[in-house]
Known about the structure:
Blueprint: H1 3-28, H2 35-72, H3 80-114, H4 117-153
Helix pairs in contact: 1-2, 2-3, 2-4, 3-4
Amino acid sequence: MKLGYLFAWIGIVEWLIAGLAYPIGMRAAGIELTAIDSLHFMSSLVLCGLIAAAYPFIGITAYAVHYLYPALIRPGPRPAAEVGRLRWVEQLTWIYLGMGLLLPMFAVAILVTIGSEQSRMSLLVLSIGSFVGCGLLFRLARRIQTDVAVLTNQAG
Length: 156
């Protein structure tokens, strides 16, 4: 049940480490970064990490709830704790779906306010990728919700 949650957090931690390591590495390599440049660099990596966390959570959770969990349970009623964990997964799905839908829009808003020539290509790529990704995330999130509803109704 926690497989998608764990993978999402692994990704978030790795992006946070990268957000610290890259500016430090760049300074060690002799590249001059102002404090504001370092802050922007770290902020962008943290934002990307939060966006990226939604995809493994929803993808792995959809697979686990649809295929793995039903193969591992015994027929018949399940304990209330199992049903509680399924409902926890469903609640987390809403949170990660929101992250996957809203954070890319937030990133686009930031790029629009920056308004540099370089940000236009980033804006285009982020917008197209977000549009495709949002459709995929929504579809998988609905599948998780449907599977959880079926599994909790079978709990007896």
